[in-house]
Amino acid sequence: MTAMLDVAGLGHTYQAKDGAHRAIDGLTFTVGAGELVCVVGPSGCGKSTLLRTICGLVKPTEGGISLHGNKIDGVPEDLAVVFQDYSRSLFPWLSVQRNVEFPLRRSLGRKQRRARAAEALELVGLAKAVGKYPWQLSGGMQQRVSIARALAYQPALLLMDEPFASVDAQTRFELEDLLLKVKREQNTTVLVVTHDIDESVYLGDRVLVLSNSPASVVADLRVDLPGVRDQITTRESDAFVTLRGEVARLLNVGRPTAQRKVAAEAAVAAKWAEAERAALREAHAEDHATN
Hints:
Strand content: 15-25%
Helix content: 40-55%
CATH architecture of the largest domain: 3-Layer(aba) Sandwich
Order of helices and strands: EEEHEEEHHHHEHEHEEHHH
Number of helices: 10
């Protein structure tokens, strides 16, 4: 499989008033053309920093990133992002049609923009909502508009940052299936960041598991599930349950260290409490002897 995205030895350190903060450390992986890869990791491990470096918004302090063989140095033109907060990513004063057309204004004429937007809205099931405004749509429909806008741009790589975290469970399932449909029909290359272990296994061709901060790759797991998936039968399958458990165990690799830290702190607190009780007993004994 041809590598669409190549991340090699990626590292980034932020300089802050209280000192340097290492966000990611030695990240190396590839995403093949037409592949859907999910990235999971503990909160605060550096997933957002990873996305910003791929978008070209943050220049890494180490390593490099290439998109279809070209080193990323600035914001790539053939990349699109779908954010978690759909309500803030759409222009409320523009219709659905014009929201989807918006990123195409500089590259396409009016007729081409309309055709491209109509095709993308048809793909996400919103062909009849072209004249409506975002505030007239449900949350799930607004996120469909965001996805349509990204698809209309026809990017080489689609990045999705917790794209379904802000919708209800039923809508989330519908959007997950929509993404799989788009991936099959458009052969779109997608990198999804998610906190949801089940979602990562259900969506992905592969799951990248990251460590605690600074982020490094703990495991790169191939998802051995059928290309066409179902929210019920796929999630009940032995392969799904087994892989979900493996991802969960890998995410908990750092937990014993944290538990030891808590236990050590508790032991120190217990020693101090015992010392205080001993001092009180000694003081009481002295007062009793004096009296």
